[in-house]
Specification:
Distance between the termini: 29 Å
Structural class: mainly alpha
Largest sheet: 2 strands, antiparallel
Order of helices and strands: HHEEHH
Low-confidence stretches: none
Radius of gyration: 18 Å
Strand order of the largest sheet: 1-2
């Protein structure tokens, strides 16, 4: 998979963003786009059926390390995305990334720097970073 330069994406978003330059517009559009991502995934389960949710209690043995726990945790998903659902979800995720980047632009934040800091934090703390 080819890695793209987030800064290039951030510049492109800045050039394209005309109507939603207000932080309030950016925040509400970001929230709306996140809801659309959720809805697209739900529709893959309920309308298309290419995915199934098989949720149950996660059973993690008490005598294992936190790092080993990932071997016992399930995604609760069965199946795989059909091409149509995959395309829809990718589109909705793209819009969500667009509005996240628009928020960064509005607040004069560097998306690449944020990603690098988060990567360093996750790398330093490992599995403990999300506790």
């Amino acid at each position: 998979m080819k890695r793209r330069d987030p800064l290039d994406f951030q510049s492109t978003v800045s050039e394209c963003l005309i109507r939603h330059r207000s932080i309030l517009d950016c925040l509400s559009k970001f929230q709306e786009s996140a809801a659309r991502v959720n809805r697209a995934i739900v529709k893959a389960v309920t309308a298309c059926g290419c995915l199934e949710v098989r949720a149950k209690r996660q059973t993690i043995p008490a005598d294992i390390s936190l790092a080993q726990a990932r071997d016992y945790v399930d995604t609760h998903l069965a199946g795989s995305l059909c091409p149509d659902c995959k395309d829809t979800i990718e589109t909705e995720l793209g819009m969500s990334l667009f509005y996240l980047t628009a928020i960064c632009n509005t607040l004069d934040l560097d998306l690449e720097e944020i990603l690098d800091k988060e990567k360093q934090r996750i790398s330093a703390l490992g599995v403990y970073s999300l506790l």
